[in-house]
Write a structure and sequence with these properties.
By secondary structure, this protein is α/β, with parallel strands linked by helices. The protein has three domains: 83 residues, SRP54, nucleotide-binding domain (Four Helix Bundle (Hemerythrin (Met), subunit A), Up-down Bundle), CATH 1.20.120; 195 residues, Rossmann fold, CATH 3.40.50.300; 139 residues, 434 Repressor (Amino-terminal Domain). An eight-stranded mixed beta sheet has the order 3-2-4-1-5-6-7-8, sandwiched between helices. Helix 1 runs antiparallel to helix 4, helix 3 packs across helix 4 and helix 5 packs parallel to helix 6. It starts with a helix and ends with a helix.
Length: 443
């Protein structure tokens, strides 16, 4: 996410981050590079120029040149301005009414149908809502089937009417269906349309007028850059939507849409899509995104994701096993499963300060744990519960059975033993010992 922009901004701010003499000239040079980085990320020229002008004004106004750590103060000003540019405060979604109607709009191929499912899943699991998805795309043959598949994946009901070609009538019937079934959220998935197609734009305006949604969301593919911003403006003129959804932020996006869309349409980005899974949806926090763009990581989001997957009962069970020296490979496997549920591995690493920059050229596969799982699954139940049994001949058999080498089996054993010791130290309060051990861990 924003790798190229992050790298260019880091290079631009490098001079000011050093301990050399800071002058008005190199502040101006740095901001010129910052502007160039924003333009390369497909941010509108006017917005990029206004941004750097504001940063320069604040920098000189706060006497950055004479402070003890001018580089740090400059980075903070850039971060604050970037946060303000992307909306400042986090914006929630209005689901107070019963049922709350959410109308999804956007271009063809922007990922509306998939995101309708992600949003339904988010409201179901995080907000304890009962959603109903309504299929109002009567033009794309597979659209109704796709929404039914999405609904099945997340355990949400879907309303469709294949005999009806009137999206307005289908939307109204869907709301009536939601009321009869006690659903308190209605998400209306509409057909993708082009902003230049007057007939299709009139149609979505008619749906909007007929259902009077509590939330109208514009779904846009972040990879389309500045075009996405222009399209958002055209849709906003017709619908006066409430917020923006940015999809495909896990792709090789330049980031221009995320940075400048708020200042063009004056509507907040409410959610972002960060992967293909139904759980790959995040509330958009401008300040956290600014920190990630500047390579500062996003520890708060990382902790929140970990807490969501944390199973208290499982943790207590493992705690008892550690105390009795009974921590086995099945427990190790369950810890891996919890980490995997947190999301895309490279995305998670980007949330750790400093790691994102280190990992920029490293391809982190989502199947990074595949060989570990294969090795553990090749063990007998007894071996998984009693790791001490694993002698050379057993390791050779496990390696052959899992399609891995004996070196990989030994490496897993080493990691497992270190993790077991670390967990035991954490339980016994041996903080200093644990820190020493972490220093000695293989990197």
């Amino acid at each position: 996410m924003f790798n190229s922009l992050s790298e260019k901004l880091d290079k631009a701010l490098h001079v000011l981050k050093g301990h050399g003499r800071i002058s008005e000239i190199n502040v101006a040079e740095t901001l010129k590079e910052v502007r160039r980085a924003l333009l390369d990320a497909d941010v509108n020229y006017k917005i990029a120029k206004e941004f750097t002008n504001r940063v320069k004004e604040k920098a000189l106004g706060q006497n950055v040149l004479t402070t003890l750590q001018p580089g740090q103060l400059m980075v903070k000003i850039v971060k604050d301005e970037l946060t303000a540019l992307m909306g400042g405060d986090v914006e929630g979604i209005n689901v107070a009414a019963t049922p709350s109607v959410i109308l999804m709009s956007g271009l063809q191929g922007s990922g509306k149908t998939t995101f309708s499912g992600k949003l339904a899943n988010y409201l179901k699991t995080k907000k304890s809502k009962k959603p109903l998805l309504v299929a109002c795309d009567v033009y794309r043959p597979a659209a109704i089937d796709q929404l039914h598949i999405v609904g099945e994946q997340i355990g949400a009901e879907v309303y469709s009417d294949r005999e009806n070609n009137d999206p307005v009538a289908i939307a109204k019937a869907g709301i009536a269906e939601a009321k009869s079934k006690g659903c308190n959220i209605v998400i209306i998935d509409t057909a993708g349309r082009l902003a230049v197609d007057d007939a299709m734009m009139t149609e979505i305006a008619n749906i909007h007028k007929a259902v009077q949604p509590q939330e109208t969301l514009f779904v846009v593919d972040a990879m389309t850059g500045q075009d996405a911003v222009n399209t958002a403006k055209a849709f906003n003129d017709i619908l006066n939507f409430d917020g923006v959804i940015l999809t495909k932020l896990d792709g090789d996006t330049r980031g221009g849409a995320a940075i400048s869309i708020k200042s063009v349409v004056n509507k907040p980005i409410k959610f972002i899509g960060t992967g293909e899974k139904m759980e790959a949806i995040d509330v958009f926090y401008p300040a956290r995104m600014a920190e990630r763009i500047l390579g500062m990581g996003d520890v708060v989001s990382l902790v929140e994701r970990a807490q969501e997957q944390f199973d208290e009962q499982e943790a207590r069970k493992i705690q008892k096993k550690i105390a009795k020296n009974q921590f086995g490979f099945d427990d190790f496997l369950s810890q891996i499963q919890q980490v995997k549920k947190m999301g895309n591995m490279k995305d998670l690493m980007g949330m750790i300060p400093g790691v994102g920059k280190m990992m920029k050229d490293v391809d982190v596969d989502d199947d990074a744990f595949k060989h570990i799982e294969a090795i553990i699954h090749s063990m007998t139940p007894e071996e998984r519960s009693k790791p001490a049994l694993l002698n050379a001949s057993r390791k050779k058999r496990i390696g052959a059975g899992s399609g891995t080498s004996i070196q990989q089996v030994n490496q897993l054993m080493k990691q497992f033993n270190q993790m077991s010791k670390m967990m035991k130290m954490m339980q016994g309060g041996g903080g200093k010992k644990m820190m020493q051990m972490m220093k000695n861990m293989p990197r």
